[in-house]
User: What shape does this take?
Amino acid sequence: MILKMEQKIQSARWRESIYWHLASHGVPKSLHCLCLKLAEEYAANAVARSRLPQPEFVSRLTDPSFHHVVLLTDNVLAASVVISSAVKNSAQPEKLVFHIVTDKKTYTSMHAWFAISNINSAVVEVKGLHQYDWSHEVNVGVREMLEIHRLIWSHHYDNLKKDLEYDTGNERNLEVLSPSCLSLMNHLRIYIPELFPDLKKIVFLDDDVVVQHDISSLWQLDINGKVVGAVVDSWCGHECCPGRKYMDYFNFSNPVIASNLDHDRCGWLYGVNVFDLQAWRMTSITSAYHQWLKLSLNSGMTLWRPGALPPALIAFEGHVHPIDPSWHLAGLGYWFPPVGRQILEAAAVIHFSGPAKPWLEISSPEVRSLWNRHVNFSNELVRKCRFMG
Assistant: This one.
């Protein structure tokens, strides 16, 4: 009886984890409502269609003396929270220039939101992917990249279905259910130099972050000629990874992986990064990324778990400069961090990486409160769409 009870408990926990990950795909009615109403504004309101930024600020879009922040997102409210939190905590908000790249579906809503919103001092640019005139080579590369990522995901998803059928499996395998695995905006970050050919240095922020302190000194960081500055070490001490070790991303039973990578090595964190785009353009990082994608395809798609980070860890090898762990505290989409309040509050940027995004009902109230404080609940459209506080 005890054995049967334990089996039932394990089965219930497994199914709970499945439902939790599946819930991360949901688009709340309130968020869908906001996008629809903003699209209506774009169609009916000339102000919502006004130029972004205004003509007198266009020169700032490529001026290297300003602080350029890049977001790749199709979530209007998430982008608003990132920008409002960064502006609120900036010592010089007038130096900030935000570049938002979104898909064609979200473009009108995203443009309308920032056209009718009052962003103190900072400049915001919204650009849709359909507005880019990329070369044939880049278009082919993007399509090929997305197709290989889809095939890798499909392979792992087929294996996961066997685990679901028998009510057993490793919870880490459930991450194949993450929406980011197939997200166009997520995978496009490897093409940031092509997205912003006129920029020299940028700070990249994921759309599920909140800025808690002034981040202006990120642009002054010396990353020693490297391409990317990222958190590698952690607040939790020696040999404690801020994210995960390579063994959690890669299949070390494959000789290609075992001969090239150290399974005990800490992976650097995507989501709060300084990119030297000039240095990037002088490397073969993007082509190396594609080469490893093809190698994974030819190796039965078993070299790594689905996602944008594993091939990036290999492609950026030798081009990463560690930055202080206080810049980026990740994982709030998995757990409310078991760290002291002091560490949480000291983090310059907190990152809700994981399935439980703060705009979803599956997030904990503690996590949601950290995000909600930057949502403008007095906004007429936000009130009409009944966002939960």
Q: What stands out?
A: Residues 136-165 form the longest helix (30 residues). The first strand starts at residue 67 and ends at 72. The mean pLDDT is 90.
